[in-house]
Amino acid sequence: MSGAAATARPGLTGSGLVNAGGPEPGESPLPIQISAMASRSVKRLVRQPALVIPSVIFPLFLLAVNAGGLNAATHIPGFPTDSYLTFAIGFTFIQAAIFSTMGAGQSLAQDIENGFFSRLVLTPMRPTALMAGQLAGLVLLGQFQALLYLSVGLAAGADFAAGVAGYFVLAVLVSIISIGFGGIGLIMAIRTGSGEAVQGMFPLMFVLLFFSSMTLPRNLIEQDWYRFLATINPVSYLIEAIRSLFITGWDIEALSLGFGVAIVVAILSITFAARSLQGRMLK
């Protein structure tokens, strides 16, 4: 890279790599960069309710439909609770996270399409700050959703066996899930640069939900092929971890599997998103 190019793009080092080390002269510290991007992400959520409302309302609507239409499933021998609302509410958190994935991806895709990303590349902004800022609004939305869904569920008669301490476990798990699914949305946005392509990912995500243990416990699914798909589907373990807080309280196995899956998804998605982002910034 020529000296002129390096000067024009201070976010890159002389070797052509995105600066991932300490700040260069005149560059803001990483925490300040993250704070600035996070503030922008949160303000965008507030100013664009169309990105938020569907991810909040639709899961509640589907919860109401399932709780009313599938309540007879509680009479199946071995069903873990006599309230289908208590059983089904765990799925609501995962569905909301998937909707949020679309929102995060579309937000970044919009930045790419309108040229904001290209202008940002000409600054000393580091990829870590950009990604963390994009995900900050998503985590905040996830916490709002968790509190809302828990409140609505309790008001409608759902049990929450884990109690007050369980809420903090739920909040941490929801945050990790939000980061993991948000990272998937960022990957799609970075690689395609198209909001439409990000939206096209929704059917695939919905298939993952459908072939999970969202409607019945895996041990009560009669079809062998369906039970097999639900067992190898990582989404099942996320749902079951949250569900356990409502039904049994402290199911160590379910929580361990849920946290394990969530952490692995988060690490993989953020790693691939970071590499994709670095590659796009070097173009």
Q: Spell the H/E element sequence.
A: HHHHHHHHHHHH
Strand proportion, as a percent range, falls in under 5%
Low-pLDDT runs:
1-26
Integer-rounded radius of gyration: 21 Å
Helix/strand-derived category reads mainly alpha
The N- to C-terminal Cα distance equals 12 Å
Number of DSSP strands? 0
Tally the helices. Answer: 12
What does this structure look like?
The protein has helices spanning 3-8, 30-47, 53-69, 84-113, 116-121, 127-156, 163-192, 195-199, 202-210, 224-232, 234-247, 252-281. By secondary structure, the chain is mostly helical. It has one domain (28-281). Helix 4 (84-113) packs antiparallel against helix 9 (202-210). The protein starts with a helix and ends with a helix.
Can you summarize this structure?
With 283 residues, the chain is mostly helical. It is built from twelve helices and no strands.
